[in-house]
Amino acid sequence: MVRVRQFFKKILKPYEVQGILPNILLLLPRVIMGCLLTFIFSKELLGTPWADEGLELLQVAPWFVEKVSNFGIPFSLMPKTFAWSAGFTTAMGGILLIMGANTRITAFFIICMMLITILFRAWDGSWDILPVFSFFCFGLFFLGFGAGKYSFDYYFSRYVL
């Protein structure tokens, strides 16, 4: 039990930076990235309470399932499952980033999702890939640094674990 506790403390504890300004500079990109993922990008993919696509709760958009099935094997074997997991990661990952909860774990899943999108998405010559690449880079940043001092991770690792 002690080893499990130490493991989670190591994963959850963010990189500590002294001072208000550096911690605000960790907070702002995390909150902006979380808001963009949750309230802008996920409402097109998954039925959420804030979605305006006419989807039921946790229903994935049919156009997204078809797009995922065009990625090839293994995505074409279970396109609805992969599309739902990508939509859920976008919606819940953004909420967790806003709160600063499980930031490194969330960043890992966002990195995986964005990497799959970068590698398997059909390149049409437009700049639509730029947000995906930006989320990938910010995911790498939060995987390394964590959420900062103004987060649930900081308080949880400091006072609970």
Please bin the fraction of helical residues. Answer: 55-70%
How many beta-strand elements?
A: 0
DSSP strand content: under 5%
Q: Are there runs of 5+ residues with pLDDT below 50, and where? A: none
Calculate Rg over CA atoms: 17 Å
- The number of domains is 1
Report, as a whole number of angstroms, the end-to-end distance: 12 Å
- The backbone outline, from C-alpha atoms, is elongated
Polypeptide structure, described:
This protein is mainly α and 161 residues long. It has one domain (27-146). Helices cover 68% and strands 0% of the residues. Helix 2 packs antiparallel against helix 4. The chain crosses the membrane at residues 20-41, 81-98, 105-123, 129-148.
Q: What's the short story on this structure?
A:
With 161 residues, this protein is mainly alpha-helical. The chain has helices at residues 2-12, 20-45, 62-69, 79-99, 103-120, 129-145, 152-160.
List keywords for this structure.
single chain, 161 residues, 68% helix, 0% strand, elongated
Write the layout of secondary structure elements.
Blueprint: H1 2-12, H2 20-45, H3 62-69, H4 79-99, H5 103-120, H6 129-145, H7 152-160
